[in-house]
Write a structure and sequence with these properties.
Distance between the termini: 34 Å
Shape: globular
Number of strands: 10
Structural class: alpha/beta
Largest sheet: 8 strands, mixed
CATH superfamily: Vaccinia Virus protein VP39
Helix content: 40-55%
Number of helices: 10
Radius of gyration: 17 Å
CATH class: Alpha Beta
Number of domains: 1
Order of helices and strands: HEEHHHEHEHEHEHEHEEHE
Length: 273
């Protein structure tokens, strides 16, 4: 795969995804004594926003750096901002935590985290990122297959699915993996990130997910109207097994991003099917 998340680290979609992921993890920890977190497309785990790839896209400038400078950011972003500050030694630096680092540092002793990454170079960086965390493991493996195999092997499964969407079958594999995970562990929770370019693709994915379960929590964020399907006009988190408190957290995150970082016509909405 050619995709490198370093080009997009710290952008508006990361703020939305990471704030919601941390809120969902915390809520699930309140419900379950032990969690088994499986991150299907983990990436490198952390990113230097002063690096060439991040500077080339400049997406973080309209994302995490805007959030850091904001005086009106809601409390849902506090855990993400604290993690970023800790990664920078308490200073206002350029390092940004990816989902593996955010999730690993929030584990309890009874929780476990497995991050999967197929790129050998990013898998190596992921192992280095996770090395300080006893409950976290990096695998150079297909995350879809790993999630289906490991769900239900100890602790309540919490599967995070965030593929690069370079392959035409990524949407179908998400649905297949969701079905396989729930077949192995009915109490599994899942959080799926996806880009929103056009409404037809988004709606088709939701319809496909509803063939697996009719109990979805959807947090939809649009930065702009969906007039150009070549652009990532927004993003969404589609969740299964999310506790009720996640609704409010997702609404807080999406509303602030849409109003503070979005263009005219941007919007956020959260609903359950």
């Amino acid at each position: 795969m050619n995709y490198r998340h370093a080009f997009h680290a710290g952008n508006f979609a990361d703020l939305h995804k990471h704030a919601i992921l941390l809120a969902m993890l915390s809520a699930l920890q309140g419900e379950s004594d032990a969690l088994s977190v499986i991150d299907t497309h983990a990436g490198a785990g952390g990113y230097d926003l002063s690096g060439e790839m991040a500077r080339r896209s400049a997406e973080a400038q309209a994302g995490i750096f805007r959030l850091k400078a904001a005086s009106d950011a809601p409390s849902v972003f506090d855990p993400l901002l604290k993690a970023a500050a800790d990664m920078n030694g308490g200073k206002d630096g350029d390092l940004y935590p990816g989902s593996p680092l955010l999730l690993a540092r929030a584990l309890r002793k009874a929780d476990r985290y497995v991050g999967c990454e197929l790129r050998p170079d990013d898998a190596r960086l992921l192992r280095e990122t996770l090395a300080p965390y006893a409950g976290a493991q990096a695998l150079e493996a297909d995350g879809f297959i790993t999630a289906a195999q490991q769900a239900g092997r100890g602790g309540r499964p919490f599967v995070v699915i965030d593929p690069p969407f370079e392959r035409p079958d990524d949407y179908a594999r998400i649905v297949e993996t969701t079905r396989a995970v729930l077949a192995r562990a009915k109490d599994a929770a899942l959080a799926v990130w996806l880009p929103i370019k056009d409404l037809e693709t988004f709606d088709a994915f939701l319809r496909a997910m509803e063939t697996v379960t009719n109990k979805l929590l959807v947090a939809e964020l649009r930065l702009r109207p969906l007039t150009d399907p070549m652009k990532m006009n927004g993003c969404a988190m589609v969740m299964i097994g999310a506790p009720d408190s996640v609704d409010g957290a997702a609404a807080q995150a999406g509303d602030w991003i849409a109003s503070s970082l979005g263009e005219a016509g941007g919007r956020s909405r959260v609903w359950r099917t």
